[in-house]
Amino acid sequence: MSKSAKVMSKIVEINGIKTELTHYSSKETDHCLIFFPGNPGLASFYVEFLSKIHDELNGDLDIICCSYPGHSPADGSMLNLDEQIQHKIDLVDYLSESLSDTKFYIGGHSIGAHMAINVIKHRPNHNIVKVFALFPTLHGMAETPRGKEVSKITGAVARSVIAWVVVVLNILPMALLVKICQLVTKQPKPMAQVTVQQLCRYNTIKSVLHLADWEMKQVIELDKDTINKHCDKLVMYYSQDDGWVPMDYYHEIKAEFPDVEIHLCKDGMDHAFVTHHSVAMGVKMAGWIRNLIK
Where are the transmembrane segments (predicted)? Predict the structure, then answer.
């Protein structure tokens, strides 16, 4: 088998919800990484990152990334945070049944890390070896610098206005939209193309902002009981410059949970690591997993 990852997407039904799964094929293995994106929850943003993990481990790890209902064209559901979390629990149930005797590693970025920790909370007996929480938003989201900014645009009226603006912008040529997206978001061209092609739709924008609204309302207190209960299975990775997870949050968690493996990035990665640091983060995460699957 070629070392380079063969990336395939398929639609499966998870408890009545059509779900887009992106699969990075492996050799015969009993190890599987399930990865949950941030918000927007599109697996397409994580292809370079997850391909790097796959290649670093020479195909010895199955990798499945889940796009979020309402964010992917596969399903138009508009789910709140609790419903998105339940969907991830249902997904792990589905994979646990279909991949029996498999050791699972759950990874999550940003709000995906919050979902990952909720999965091990509700499914502690599903053979989950480790949970990797990358730039995790675990508490006080609305009080962060970015949270205060985003809170201004997540209300019902603001969501509709922004979604209609996107509809109007869609009359522009695709190439021009991509350039505008690059200027506004600082995304490289391939990622800006994903944003324009998959996110710039009325219902999708509303769904993304709907989830963000619930994040601001619900991600308030740390789930200390769950973190302490599963401290030996958690790996957390923080940035030194993160508008969603300020350094005082890092210091608070580091002091509160001395038994959790917690890292502070020294390589200049920011919260949206997939924009410019997919390869570096992929190498780092592959190193953690390599030590577990030997």
Answer: 156-178
What is the reported pTM?
0.95
Residue type, 32: C
Contacts 24+ apart (CB under 8 A), 187-193: 187/275, 188/275, 188/276, 191/45, 191/274, 191/275
CB 152 within 8 A of CB 256: no
CB 4 within 8 A of CB 55: yes
Handedness of CA 15, 21, 27, 30 (dihedral sign): negative
For residue 51, tell me if it sits in a domain.
Answer: yes
Q: Is residue 43 part of a domain?
A: yes
Burial class (CB in 10 A: 0-12, 13-18, 19+), 68: buried
Angle between helices 111-122 and 81-98 (to 10 degrees): 60
Running along the chain, 294 residues long, what does each successive block of 10 average in pLDDT?
A: 70 96 87 98 97 94 96 91 98 94 97 99 96 99 98 94 92 94 91 91 95 98 98 98 98 97 97 97 98 87
Of 54, 235, 35, nearest to 132 (Cα)? Answer: 235
